[in-house]
Protein backbone atom coordinates (compact mmCIF):
# COMPACT_ATOMS: atom_id res chain seq x y z
CA UNK A 1 0.00 0.00 0.00
CA UNK A 2 1.33 3.43 -0.95
CA UNK A 3 2.28 5.95 1.72
CA UNK A 4 -0.38 8.54 2.54
CA UNK A 5 0.96 12.06 2.03
CA UNK A 6 -0.75 14.52 4.35
CA UNK A 7 -1.08 17.98 2.73
CA UNK A 8 0.67 20.91 4.41
CA UNK A 9 -1.24 24.07 5.31
CA UNK A 10 -0.08 27.68 5.38
CA UNK A 11 -3.39 29.55 5.33
CA UNK A 12 -4.25 29.66 1.60
CA UNK A 13 -6.99 27.80 -0.28
CA UNK A 14 -8.54 26.46 2.92
CA UNK A 15 -11.38 24.51 1.33
CA UNK A 16 -9.23 22.46 -1.03
CA UNK A 17 -6.70 21.72 1.73
CA UNK A 18 -9.46 20.74 4.19
CA UNK A 19 -10.96 18.20 1.76
CA UNK A 20 -7.53 16.63 1.11
CA UNK A 21 -6.75 16.49 4.83
CA UNK A 22 -10.03 14.75 5.63
CA UNK A 23 -9.40 12.15 2.91
CA UNK A 24 -5.97 11.43 4.38
CA UNK A 25 -7.46 10.97 7.84
CA UNK A 26 -9.91 8.42 6.42
CA UNK A 27 -7.11 6.49 4.74
CA UNK A 28 -5.12 6.48 8.01
CA UNK A 29 -8.23 5.42 9.92
CA UNK A 30 -7.93 8.49 12.17
CA UNK A 31 -11.17 10.19 11.25
CA UNK A 32 -12.65 9.47 14.69
CA UNK A 33 -9.53 10.19 16.72
CA UNK A 34 -9.65 13.91 17.54
CA UNK A 35 -6.25 14.03 19.22
CA UNK A 36 -4.41 12.35 16.32
CA UNK A 37 -6.07 14.62 13.74
CA UNK A 38 -5.03 17.69 15.73
CA UNK A 39 -1.48 16.30 15.99
CA UNK A 40 -1.26 15.62 12.23
CA UNK A 41 -2.49 19.18 11.57
CA UNK A 42 0.12 20.71 13.88
CA UNK A 43 2.96 18.66 12.40
CA UNK A 44 2.06 19.63 8.82
CA UNK A 45 1.81 23.38 9.33
CA UNK A 46 4.20 25.31 7.07
CA UNK A 47 6.81 26.92 9.28
CA UNK A 48 6.60 30.71 9.40
CA UNK A 49 3.28 30.81 7.53
CA UNK A 50 0.21 32.77 8.57
CA UNK A 51 -1.45 29.55 9.75
CA UNK A 52 1.58 28.57 11.84
CA UNK A 53 1.78 31.98 13.54
CA UNK A 54 -1.96 31.95 14.17
CA UNK A 55 -1.79 28.45 15.70
CA UNK A 56 1.05 29.39 18.04
CA UNK A 57 -0.33 32.76 19.19
CA UNK A 58 -4.13 32.70 18.93
CA UNK A 59 -5.38 29.12 19.41
CA UNK A 60 -6.21 28.12 23.02
CA UNK A 61 -4.17 25.26 24.42
CA UNK A 62 -7.23 23.05 24.85
CA UNK A 63 -8.12 23.37 21.16
CA UNK A 64 -4.58 22.53 19.98
CA UNK A 65 -5.07 18.87 20.93
CA UNK A 66 -8.79 18.54 20.04
CA UNK A 67 -9.64 18.48 16.31
CA UNK A 68 -13.36 19.06 16.91
CA UNK A 69 -12.56 22.27 18.80
CA UNK A 70 -9.91 23.34 16.28
CA UNK A 71 -12.02 23.06 13.09
CA UNK A 72 -14.48 25.90 13.94
CA UNK A 73 -11.53 28.18 14.71
CA UNK A 74 -9.93 27.25 11.38
CA UNK A 75 -13.11 28.00 9.45
CA UNK A 76 -13.59 31.36 11.13
CA UNK A 77 -10.01 32.37 10.34
CA UNK A 78 -9.29 30.99 6.87
CA UNK A 79 -12.58 30.02 5.17
CA UNK A 80 -12.85 33.35 3.31
CA UNK A 81 -12.11 32.31 -0.26
CA UNK A 82 -11.86 34.52 -3.33
CA UNK A 83 -14.81 32.62 -4.80
CA UNK A 84 -16.96 33.76 -1.88
CA UNK A 85 -15.98 37.37 -2.43
CA UNK A 86 -16.70 37.18 -6.14
CA UNK A 87 -20.06 35.54 -5.53
CA UNK A 88 -20.94 38.27 -3.01
CA UNK A 89 -19.84 40.95 -5.47
CA UNK A 90 -22.07 39.47 -8.17
CA UNK A 91 -25.01 39.56 -5.77
CA UNK A 92 -24.13 43.12 -4.82
CA UNK A 93 -24.06 44.42 -8.39
CA UNK A 94 -26.74 42.34 -10.14
CA UNK A 95 -29.61 42.05 -7.63
CA UNK A 96 -32.22 44.50 -8.89
CA UNK A 97 -35.11 46.23 -7.16
CA UNK A 98 -37.71 47.70 -9.51
CA UNK A 99 -40.03 50.52 -8.48
CA UNK A 100 -42.99 48.20 -8.98
CA UNK A 101 -41.66 45.88 -6.25
CA UNK A 102 -41.75 48.59 -3.58
CA UNK A 103 -44.45 47.77 -1.05
CA UNK A 104 -45.15 44.32 -2.56
CA UNK A 105 -44.68 41.09 -0.58
CA UNK A 106 -42.85 37.92 -1.59
CA UNK A 107 -44.02 34.33 -1.07
CA UNK A 108 -42.85 34.41 2.55
CA UNK A 109 -44.86 37.54 3.30
CA UNK A 110 -41.79 39.77 3.55
CA UNK A 111 -41.79 43.12 1.78
CA UNK A 112 -39.64 42.77 -1.33
CA UNK A 113 -37.73 45.99 -0.76
CA UNK A 114 -36.93 44.93 2.82
CA UNK A 115 -35.70 41.50 1.65
CA UNK A 116 -33.60 43.20 -1.05
CA UNK A 117 -31.97 45.55 1.46
CA UNK A 118 -31.04 42.68 3.77
CA UNK A 119 -29.61 40.62 0.90
CA UNK A 120 -27.46 43.53 -0.27
CA UNK A 121 -26.28 44.25 3.28
CA UNK A 122 -25.09 40.65 3.70
CA UNK A 123 -23.37 40.70 0.28
CA UNK A 124 -21.61 43.95 1.24
CA UNK A 125 -20.05 42.30 4.29
CA UNK A 126 -18.92 39.25 2.31
CA UNK A 127 -17.55 41.25 -0.65
CA UNK A 128 -14.78 42.77 1.46
CA UNK A 129 -13.48 46.30 1.84
CA UNK A 130 -14.60 49.14 -0.45
CA UNK A 131 -12.67 52.24 0.73
CA UNK A 132 -13.75 54.45 -2.18
CA UNK A 133 -17.44 53.47 -1.93
CA UNK A 134 -17.52 52.55 -5.62
CA UNK A 135 -19.97 49.74 -4.92
CA UNK A 136 -22.58 52.34 -3.94
CA UNK A 137 -22.80 53.56 -7.56
CA UNK A 138 -23.22 50.00 -8.80
CA UNK A 139 -25.96 49.21 -6.26
CA UNK A 140 -27.69 52.50 -7.05
CA UNK A 141 -27.91 51.50 -10.72
CA UNK A 142 -29.87 48.38 -9.76
CA UNK A 143 -32.83 50.22 -8.22
CA UNK A 144 -35.74 51.86 -10.02
CA UNK A 145 -35.51 55.54 -11.07
CA UNK A 146 -38.07 56.78 -8.53
CA UNK A 147 -36.41 55.00 -5.61
CA UNK A 148 -33.02 56.22 -6.86
CA UNK A 149 -34.25 59.81 -6.88
CA UNK A 150 -35.56 59.41 -3.32
CA UNK A 151 -32.23 58.00 -2.10
CA UNK A 152 -30.27 60.85 -3.67
CA UNK A 153 -32.68 63.51 -2.40
CA UNK A 154 -32.44 62.22 1.18
CA UNK A 155 -28.63 61.89 1.11
CA UNK A 156 -28.73 58.12 1.46
CA UNK A 157 -26.77 57.22 -1.68
CA UNK A 158 -23.15 57.66 -0.54
CA UNK A 159 -22.49 54.13 0.71
CA UNK A 160 -24.04 50.68 0.36
CA UNK A 161 -24.88 50.74 4.07
CA UNK A 162 -26.81 54.01 3.74
CA UNK A 163 -28.74 52.68 0.75
CA UNK A 164 -29.71 49.46 2.56
CA UNK A 165 -30.73 51.28 5.75
CA UNK A 166 -32.93 53.76 3.89
CA UNK A 167 -34.61 51.15 1.67
CA UNK A 168 -35.37 48.88 4.62
CA UNK A 169 -36.84 51.82 6.59
CA UNK A 170 -39.02 53.37 3.87
CA UNK A 171 -42.04 55.08 5.41
CA UNK A 172 -45.60 54.20 4.32
CA UNK A 173 -45.92 57.63 2.72
CA UNK A 174 -42.71 57.14 0.67
CA UNK A 175 -43.86 53.68 -0.41
CA UNK A 176 -47.26 54.97 -1.52
CA UNK A 177 -45.67 57.88 -3.42
CA UNK A 178 -43.47 55.52 -5.44
CA UNK A 179 -46.34 53.13 -6.11
CA UNK A 180 -48.50 56.03 -7.33
CA UNK A 181 -45.74 57.10 -9.77
CA UNK A 182 -45.52 53.53 -11.08
CA UNK A 183 -49.29 53.42 -11.64
CA UNK A 184 -49.18 56.69 -13.57
CA UNK A 185 -46.36 55.47 -15.77
CA UNK A 186 -48.22 52.23 -16.47
CA UNK A 187 -51.39 54.11 -17.40
CA UNK A 188 -49.42 56.44 -19.67
CA UNK A 189 -47.70 53.51 -21.38
CA UNK A 190 -51.04 51.79 -21.97
CA UNK A 191 -52.49 54.98 -23.45
CA UNK A 192 -49.52 55.40 -25.78
CA UNK A 193 -49.88 51.78 -26.92
CA UNK A 194 -53.54 52.30 -27.72
CA UNK A 195 -52.80 55.50 -29.63
CA UNK A 196 -50.06 53.75 -31.63
CA UNK A 197 -52.39 50.89 -32.48
CA UNK A 198 -55.06 53.35 -33.60
CA UNK A 199 -52.55 55.19 -35.81
CA UNK A 200 -51.52 51.91 -37.44
CA UNK A 201 -55.14 51.01 -38.18
CA UNK A 202 -55.74 54.41 -39.73
CA UNK A 203 -52.58 54.13 -41.79
CA UNK A 204 -53.83 50.83 -43.26
CA UNK A 205 -57.06 52.51 -44.42
CA UNK A 206 -56.13 54.79 -47.38
CA UNK A 207 -58.47 57.69 -48.02
CA UNK A 208 -60.34 57.83 -51.29
CA UNK A 209 -58.88 60.28 -53.85
CA UNK A 210 -62.20 62.17 -53.97
CA UNK A 211 -61.72 63.18 -50.32
CA UNK A 212 -58.50 64.96 -51.22
CA UNK A 213 -59.94 66.57 -54.30
CA UNK A 214 -62.39 68.50 -52.11
CA UNK A 215 -59.46 70.43 -50.59
CA UNK A 216 -57.27 70.76 -53.69
CA UNK A 217 -57.28 73.85 -55.97
CA UNK A 218 -59.03 73.44 -59.27
CA UNK A 219 -55.72 73.57 -61.14
CA UNK A 220 -54.04 71.01 -58.90
CA UNK A 221 -52.89 67.76 -60.39
CA UNK A 222 -54.94 64.62 -59.63
CA UNK A 223 -54.14 62.94 -56.33
CA UNK A 224 -51.28 60.46 -56.37
CA UNK A 225 -50.51 58.70 -53.13
CA UNK A 226 -46.76 58.30 -53.74
CA UNK A 227 -46.39 62.02 -54.51
CA UNK A 228 -48.45 63.05 -51.48
CA UNK A 229 -46.44 60.74 -49.20
CA UNK A 230 -43.10 62.18 -50.27
CA UNK A 231 -44.27 65.75 -49.60
CA UNK A 232 -46.25 65.37 -46.38
CA UNK A 233 -44.84 62.50 -44.34
CA UNK A 234 -42.24 63.79 -41.85
CA UNK A 235 -38.68 62.75 -42.72
CA UNK A 236 -37.30 59.70 -40.96
CA UNK A 237 -35.15 60.35 -37.89
CA UNK A 238 -33.09 57.22 -38.44
CA UNK A 239 -30.45 59.23 -40.32
CA UNK A 240 -30.05 61.85 -37.58
CA UNK A 241 -26.45 61.61 -36.35
CA UNK A 242 -25.60 61.95 -32.65
CA UNK A 243 -21.94 62.56 -31.84
CA UNK A 244 -20.96 60.43 -28.83
CA UNK A 245 -18.28 62.72 -27.38
CA UNK A 246 -16.46 63.64 -25.28
CA UNK A 247 -15.94 66.95 -27.10
CA UNK A 248 -12.97 69.38 -26.91
CA UNK A 249 -13.18 72.04 -24.18
CA UNK A 250 -13.55 74.88 -26.69
CA UNK A 251 -16.45 77.10 -27.72
CA UNK A 252 -16.90 74.92 -30.78
CA UNK A 253 -16.82 71.79 -28.61
CA UNK A 254 -19.52 73.21 -26.34
CA UNK A 255 -21.64 74.05 -29.37
CA UNK A 256 -21.21 70.54 -30.79
CA UNK A 257 -22.13 69.07 -27.40
CA UNK A 258 -25.39 71.05 -27.31
CA UNK A 259 -26.14 70.02 -30.87
CA UNK A 260 -25.47 66.37 -30.00
CA UNK A 261 -27.85 66.45 -27.02
CA UNK A 262 -30.57 68.12 -29.11
CA UNK A 263 -30.00 65.54 -31.88
CA UNK A 264 -30.36 62.75 -29.34
CA UNK A 265 -33.85 63.92 -28.35
CA UNK A 266 -34.76 64.68 -31.94
CA UNK A 267 -33.77 61.15 -32.92
CA UNK A 268 -35.25 59.24 -29.98
CA UNK A 269 -37.97 61.53 -28.61
CA UNK A 270 -38.43 63.59 -25.44
CA UNK A 271 -37.71 61.71 -22.23
CA UNK A 272 -35.93 58.90 -24.07
CA UNK A 273 -33.65 56.56 -22.12
CA UNK A 274 -30.15 56.10 -23.46
CA UNK A 275 -29.00 52.53 -24.08
CA UNK A 276 -26.57 50.50 -26.17
CA UNK A 277 -28.57 51.45 -29.26
CA UNK A 278 -29.14 55.03 -28.09
CA UNK A 279 -25.75 56.45 -26.94
CA UNK A 280 -25.90 59.76 -25.06
CA UNK A 281 -23.18 62.42 -25.62
CA UNK A 282 -20.42 62.94 -23.03
CA UNK A 283 -19.52 66.41 -21.72
CA UNK A 284 -16.73 68.53 -23.29
CA UNK A 285 -13.24 68.21 -21.85
CA UNK A 286 -13.91 64.95 -19.98
CA UNK A 287 -12.24 61.56 -20.22
CA UNK A 288 -13.74 58.60 -22.03
CA UNK A 289 -16.09 56.49 -19.92
CA UNK A 290 -14.45 53.48 -18.32
CA UNK A 291 -10.99 55.10 -17.95
CA UNK A 292 -11.06 55.04 -14.12
CA UNK A 293 -12.26 58.59 -14.17
CA UNK A 294 -14.03 60.62 -11.47
CA UNK A 295 -17.79 60.27 -11.91
CA UNK A 296 -18.38 63.85 -10.72
CA UNK A 297 -16.13 65.86 -13.05
CA UNK A 298 -15.07 63.30 -15.67
CA UNK A 299 -11.31 63.59 -15.02
CA UNK A 300 -9.04 60.58 -14.57
CA UNK A 301 -6.57 62.06 -12.05
CA UNK A 302 -8.68 61.13 -9.02
CA UNK A 303 -11.87 59.38 -7.87
CA UNK A 304 -15.16 60.93 -6.89
CA UNK A 305 -14.56 61.04 -3.09
CA UNK A 306 -11.42 63.18 -3.70
CA UNK A 307 -13.04 65.49 -6.29
CA UNK A 308 -12.76 69.25 -5.62
CA UNK A 309 -14.39 70.48 -8.83
CA UNK A 310 -16.89 73.31 -8.47
CA UNK A 311 -19.25 71.70 -10.96
CA UNK A 312 -20.88 68.31 -11.30
CA UNK A 313 -21.60 66.41 -14.50
CA UNK A 314 -25.28 65.71 -15.16
CA UNK A 315 -26.67 63.02 -12.89
CA UNK A 316 -27.25 60.66 -15.81
CA UNK A 317 -23.71 61.02 -17.12
CA UNK A 318 -22.35 60.18 -13.65
CA UNK A 319 -24.58 57.13 -13.55
CA UNK A 320 -23.47 56.13 -17.05
CA UNK A 321 -19.81 56.27 -16.04
CA UNK A 322 -20.63 54.12 -13.02
CA UNK A 323 -22.35 51.64 -15.33
CA UNK A 324 -19.21 51.32 -17.43
CA UNK A 325 -17.22 50.46 -14.31
CA UNK A 326 -19.90 47.94 -13.39
CA UNK A 327 -19.61 46.26 -16.77
CA UNK A 328 -15.82 46.19 -16.54
CA UNK A 329 -15.95 44.58 -13.11
CA UNK A 330 -18.43 41.97 -14.27
CA UNK A 331 -15.98 41.03 -17.03
CA UNK A 332 -13.36 39.78 -14.58
CA UNK A 333 -12.86 42.86 -12.32
CA UNK A 334 -11.02 44.54 -15.18
CA UNK A 335 -13.00 44.43 -18.37
CA UNK A 336 -12.18 45.97 -21.69
CA UNK A 337 -12.72 49.50 -22.84
CA UNK A 338 -13.97 48.08 -26.11
CA UNK A 339 -17.16 46.93 -24.39
CA UNK A 340 -20.24 48.96 -25.14
CA UNK A 341 -21.73 50.14 -21.83
CA UNK A 342 -25.35 50.85 -21.14
CA UNK A 343 -26.12 54.54 -20.94
CA UNK A 344 -28.91 56.17 -18.93
CA UNK A 345 -30.75 59.49 -19.23
CA UNK A 346 -33.44 60.99 -17.04
CA UNK A 347 -36.91 62.07 -18.15
CA UNK A 348 -36.36 65.66 -16.95
CA UNK A 349 -35.87 68.54 -19.38
CA UNK A 350 -32.58 68.19 -21.20
CA UNK A 351 -31.72 71.81 -20.38
CA UNK A 352 -30.45 70.56 -17.02
CA UNK A 353 -27.77 68.63 -18.95
CA UNK A 354 -26.13 71.95 -19.89
CA UNK A 355 -25.94 73.66 -16.50
CA UNK A 356 -22.47 72.34 -15.70
CA UNK A 357 -20.97 73.85 -18.86
CA UNK A 358 -20.84 77.33 -17.31
CA UNK A 359 -18.27 76.15 -14.72
CA UNK A 360 -16.18 73.77 -16.82
CA UNK A 361 -12.75 75.09 -17.95
CA UNK A 362 -12.40 76.04 -21.60
CA UNK A 363 -9.51 76.76 -23.94
CA UNK A 364 -9.66 79.59 -24.98
CA UNK A 365 -11.53 80.98 -21.91
CA UNK A 366 -15.28 80.46 -22.05
CA UNK A 367 -17.24 83.21 -23.75
CA UNK A 368 -20.58 84.42 -22.49
CA UNK A 369 -23.08 81.65 -23.23
CA UNK A 370 -25.70 84.06 -24.50
CA UNK A 371 -23.20 85.75 -26.80
CA UNK A 372 -21.89 82.40 -28.00
CA UNK A 373 -25.26 81.29 -29.33
CA UNK A 374 -26.81 84.66 -30.12
CA UNK A 375 -28.34 84.96 -33.56
CA UNK A 376 -26.52 87.62 -35.57
CA UNK A 377 -28.89 89.12 -38.08
CA UNK A 378 -25.98 90.72 -39.93
CA UNK A 379 -24.27 87.37 -40.32
CA UNK A 380 -27.09 85.70 -42.25
CA UNK A 381 -28.65 84.35 -39.08
CA UNK A 382 -25.51 82.34 -38.12
CA UNK A 383 -24.01 82.11 -34.62
CA UNK A 384 -21.91 85.02 -33.41
CA UNK A 385 -18.55 83.76 -32.10
From TrEMBL:
InterPro entries, alphabetically? Znf_CCHC
Q: Where is the CCHC-type domain?
A: 294-307
GO MF term set:
nucleic acid binding; zinc ion binding
* Keyword Cell membrane attributed: no
Q: Which UniProt keywords apply?
A: Metal-binding, Zinc, Zinc-finger
Q: Where is this region: Disordered?
A: 227-254, 360-385
The name this protein goes by in its record? CCHC-type domain-containing protein
Its source organism is Filobasidium floriforme
